[in-house]
Amino acid sequence: MDEIVRFTYRLRPGATARGALLAEWGRCRWLWNEAVHQQKTGRRPTFRTLSKLLTEARARLSWLREGSQVAQQQTLRTYALALQHSYKITRRGRPAFKPRSKTLPSLEYTLRGFTIRDRRLRLAGGITIPVVWSRELPSDPTSVRVYQDSLGHWYASFVVRRDTAPTPAPAAETAIGVDWGVTVTATTTDPAYDLPHLGHRRRCAAELARMQRRMSRRRRPRGNPPSKGYLRARRQAAKLHRKAARQNTHDARQWAKRVVADHAVIAVEDFRPRFLARSTMARKVADVAVGAAKRELIDLGVRAGRKVVLVAPAYTTMTCSQCGTRAKERLGLGIRTFRCGDCGYTACRDRNAARTILATVERDRAGADDVRHVITSLRAGGGVRSEPEIPRLPTVGKR
C-alpha cells in the first residue's frame, strides 16, 4: 500500500523565469481577489461558477490569456475548497483579500501543467526552472506547488506516492514514554534520551532585536512603497528566524532518530502547544519548538515500523506512575517535584508524567501497530480506549 507525501526541492530560477512566475502569480492573485469580491456581494461562489467566470474573463482580457489556465483554475479550486471548509468549521475565517505587498507567491499545477525534462521543471507558459535534486523522487509526481518564502527563495513541492513498507530498523524490545515541556523540550522515562532546550532563538535574540529596530526606523508611512533599506533589514530578520527554525528541526530529527532506533514502543504525549502561542509564553514556546520535535518523532517512528501511541495529556501530571493514584489538587507550574500522598513516591514532575504516559500505553498493549490515540478515562483508576489517528499528508523536509 502506498501513501501520499510531499517532496520539496530548491529552485534556481533566472531573471526571466522569476519575472514570469511573478507575473503568473499576479494573474492568480487577481482572480482570487475577484472571487473574494463575489463572496462579499452576498453570493457563495462554487468552483463551477468560478470556472465559468474564468472562461468569460479569459475571453475578454488578453493579459489574462497570456497566463496558464491550469494555475488559474487551481487558484479558484483552492479558494472554493477554503470557502467550503469555512462554512463547515466556524472557527476558520472566510478567504480574505490578498494584497501584493503582504502575500507571498504560490502557484499550483496539475499533471497537464508541468513536466520534468532534462532534470528541469517546465511549467505551462514556457517557464523552465533548474531544480536542485537533493534526492530522487520515489514515483512520478501528480502535482506541484511552486512558492516563494520570506527570504525570496523559490521551492517546488511535488506530491508523489511512496511505499508504506517500513524501512529496516534495528531490533528493539524496550519502550519509552515522552513528556513535552518548556524548560526541557522532551523528558523521557530514560534520562539518557532527554531532549534539552537548546535555545537557538534566544541566542540570536539580540541581533534580531537590532534588525527589528532598524526596520522600525526605516518604515515609511502607510501608502508609500518600502525603501531598500527596510527590505534589507526585513530580509535579515527573516534569515535569523529561518536559521533558528532549521536548527530546531535538525536537533529534533537527530534526537528522534536515536529514540526510534533503540525503542520498539514509543508513548508520546499528544500535547498541542497552539494555545500557548496566544499566551505570555509565546516566545518561549516558539524557542522550544515542541511541534517540530513531535512531528519528527511520529514520522520517523511510523517509517521505521515502531509502535507509536499518542496519549492525551489530561491528568498525566497529577497521576502517580507507581501506584496510579491521582492527586486531588492540580500542581502549579512552580512545583517541579511530584510527591504521592499514598505510596510516598517522589520524582521529577515531568519524569513522573513520562512514566505515567508509558504505563497508560502498557495497560492497553493490544491495538493497531501504527499511530493511534489513547484517551485516559476521567475516573481515577479507569481503563483506556483507543481511537484511530486522523490521516495527514506528511511533508518531506527541504534539502
As an assembly, this protein is: single chain
Structural class: alpha+beta
Count of distinct strands: 17
How do the helices and strands follow one another from N- to C-terminus?
EHHHHEEEEEEEEEHHHEHHEEEHEEE
Relative strand content: 15-25%
Query: What is the rounded Rg?
Result: 25 Å
What's the SSE blueprint?
Layout: E1 2-11, H1 15-40, H2 47-60, H3 62-65, H4 69-88, E2 106-110, E3 114-117, E4 120-123, E5 127-132, E6 143-148, E7 154-163, E8 175-180, E9 184-188, E10 195-196, H5 200-203, H6 205-218, H7 228-262, E11 265-269, H8 282-288, H9 290-303, E12 307-311, E13 337-339, E14 346-348, H10 349-362, E15 372-376, E16 384-388, E17 395-396
Parallel strand pairs: 1-17, 8-11, 11-12, 12-15
Antiparallel strand pairs: 1-5, 1-7, 2-6, 3-4, 4-5, 6-7, 8-9, 9-10, 13-14, 15-16
Structure characterization notes:
This protein is α+β, with helices and mostly antiparallel strands and 399 residues long. The protein has two domains: 2-163, no CATH class; 175-197 and 246-390, Nucleotidyltransferase, domain 5, CATH 3.30.420. The chain is built from ten helices and 17 strands. It has helices at 15-40, 47-60, 62-65, 69-88, 200-203, 205-218, 228-262, 282-288, 290-303, 349-362, and strands spanning 2-11, 106-110, 114-117, 120-123, 127-132, 143-148, 154-163, 175-180, 184-188, 195-196, 265-269, 307-311, 337-339, 346-348, 372-376, 384-388, 395-396. Strands 1, 2, 3, 4, 5, 6, 7 and 17 form an eight-stranded mixed beta sheet that branches. A seven-stranded mixed beta sheet has the order 10-9-8-11-12-15-16, with helices on both faces. Strands 13-14 form a two-stranded antiparallel sheet. The chain is globular. The model is unreliable at 365-371 and 374-395 (pLDDT under 50). Residues 213-232 are annotated as: Disordered. Residues 213-222 have a biased composition (Basic residues). Residues 165-271 form the Probable transposase IS891/IS1136/IS1341 domain.
